[in-house]
Amino acid sequence: MLAKRIIACLDCDLGLKGGRVVKGIKFKKIRYAGLPWELAERYYKERIDEIVFLDITASAGRRTTMVEVVEKTCQRVFIPITVGGGIRTIEDAKKLFKAGADKISINTAAIKNPKLISELSQTFGSQAVVIALDAKRRNNWFECSIYGGRKFTGVDAILWAKRVERLGAGEILLTSMDRDGTKEGFDLELTRRVSEAVSIPVIASGGAGKKEHFLEVFKKGKADAALAASLFHFKEIKIQELKKYLKERSINVR
Amino acid sequence: MITIIDYGMGNLKSIENAFRYLGARVKITNNPKEIEKAKKLVFPGVGNFGEAMKNLKRKKIDLSIKKSIQKGASFLGICLGLQLLFEESEEALKIKGLSIFKGKVLKFKKVKIPQIGWNQIRIQKKSKILKGIKDGNFVYFMHSFYVEPIDEKIIVAETNYEKNFCSVIESKNIFGVQFHPEKSGKVGLKILENFVKLKC
Fold first, then answer.
1. Residue B200: CB atoms within 10 Å
2. Which of A1, A100, A170 is nearest residue B120 as measured by Cβ atoms?
3. Residues β-bridged to residue A203
4. What CATH fold (topology level) applies to the domain B2-197?
5. Distance CA A183, CA A231 (A)
6. Cβ contacts of B143 on chain A, cutoff 8 Å
7. What letter does residue B181 receive in the DSSP assignment?
8. Interface contact A78-B138, CB threshold 8 A
9. What is the pLDDT of residues A216-251, one digit of tens each?
10. Does the annotation mark B182 as catalytic?
11. What angle separates helix B49-58 from helix B61-70, to the nearest 10 degrees?
12. ipTM surpassing 0.90, yes or no?
C-alpha cells in the first residue's frame, strides 16, 4: 500500500556562502546553525520521506545558488528532493533537475502565467511539477496568495487547485497561512476540501505542532503527505517517533 | 564500469551519484558503439514512452541496446527504462517499444495518478537483483504506467496500487524496476549494489 509521507521543509537563506536554513516566524528569521545539505543528510538518516528546499532569500545578494545546494545534497542523500522559490522559467527548472532535483515547486509564476504549468509538465512530466498553494481563510472561502504571502490574488483556492490539476500539475503543496508557524495543527477543512476536489496528491503544510496533528491531517484532512519545518530542525518531534506513533494508529508509513 | 545510457531525457545526475556513492565507476554516454561494448548498462528514464523511443531511434541507440543485451551485458531498466523493454504502451499508442519482452504498458485507471510516494515490494520469487531485500520493504515510485508482462516467470516482485502490478522483473541478464532505486534510501542503494556486484 502507498504510504503517507512525512516531508521536511528547509527554508533557505542564500545570502551567506553555502546558504543557511532559517526558521521564519512572521517575517522574523532565526538562523538554524547548519548548512542546508548537512541538515538534509541528517533527515535522510532519520528516515524522512522527502525533502523540500525553499529559497526565501529576501535580499538580491545571493552568495550561493539553489543549484549548488541541490548538487551538494544529492551526492549523499538518496530520497526525493523538491525545490521551490523564485523559479520562473523552463530554463530555471532545467538547471535544478540537472543538479539532481526530482520536482520543482512554483506558486507566484504559476498564478501569473498558468501556461507555465503545462509547459513544465510537458517538458519534465507531471510528476515533477508541484504547485505551491498558499491559502488564507476568508468568510466562506480560501484565497490564494503569492510572493510568500505578501500579496493576495482574489483567486479561490479550491478552483485554482482544480485548474492546476487540469493544466498538468502532479502534486499540490497546500499551506494554510492562518496556521503557518502557530503549531495549532493543520487546517483540516482546507486540506480536506482541496484533497476531495482533485485527484492528484495533496501535501498539507502549516501548523504542525505535535504528533496528533499529523494523525488528524491524514485521517480527517485526507492528506497524502504532511510537511513541517522547524518542528523537525529543533527535534521537537523526532521523525522516527512520529512514524512509530502513526504506525501504531494504523497509518501506513515507511 | 557502469554505463548509463543518456538519451536526452530524465534525471541522470541522481543515478550517477548513487553509483558513485557505492564506489562504482560510471560512464554516461549516448554513443551507440560504447553502449554496444558495455558490460553493465543502466537505462534510466522519466518522460514519455513515445518521445523516448523516437530519441532512441534517432540516435540509433535502440539497436545497440539490443546487441549489447544479446552479447550478455547486464542490463538494468529503471521506470520508463523498464517500460521501454516491452512492445507497446497506452502512453503512445502507435509507437513500438524495444520489444525485448512480450507485453504491454498500461495506465492506472481508478487511482490517483501519478502514483507518487513510497510503496512496498512484494517478493514473488528469489532473484539476484533483490538479494538482501525484504518482502514489504518500501521504495519510491513516481509513475502513471506499469508493465504487464505476458511471461509471468520474469516477474520477481509486485506492488499494490489499484491492483497488484509488476514492479521488478528479472530474466537472465536483464533486470528492470518500476520504482527509483536512486531515490529509495538504503533499500534502493542495496538494489543498485546488487547490480554493481553481478558477475559478468
1. 8
2. A1
3. A173, A225
4. Rossmann fold (3.40.50)
5. 9
6. 127
7. G
8. no
9. 999 999 999 999 988 898 888 999 999 999 999 999
10. yes
11. 90
12. yes
d(CA A233, CA A243): 16
The rounded distance, in Å, linking the Cα atoms of A88 and A85 is 9
Residues of A carrying an active site annotation: 11, 134
Task: Please identify which residue in the block is written with the cell numbers 521543509.
Answer: A9
> Please, are residues B32 and B60 in contact by the beta-carbon 8 Å criterion?
yes
A49 touches B: beta carbon within 8 Å: yes
Task: With CB atoms and an 8 Å threshold, state whether B46 touches A199.
Answer: no
Is A74's Cβ below 8 Å from some Cβ in B? yes
Residue range A169-227, pLDDT digits in tens: 999 999 999 999 899 999 999 999 999 999 999 999 999 999 999 999 999 999 999 99
Burial of B72 (0-12, 13-18, 19+ CB in 10 A): exposed
Q: Which three cell numbers stand for residue B84?
A: 521501454
Is the full-model pTM beyond 0.90? yes
Domains of chain A and any CATH numbers: 5-248 (3.20.20.70)
Q: What is the DSSP letter of B92?
A: B
Q: Do the Cβ atoms of B14 and A100 come within 8 Å?
A: yes
| B52 vs B155, more confident | B155
Query: Can you tell me which residue has the cell 549489447?
Result: B68
Which residues in chain A are contacts of B185 at CB distance < 8 A? Answer: 44, 47, 78-79
Instruction: Give the β-pairing of A20-25 and A28-32.
Output: antiparallel
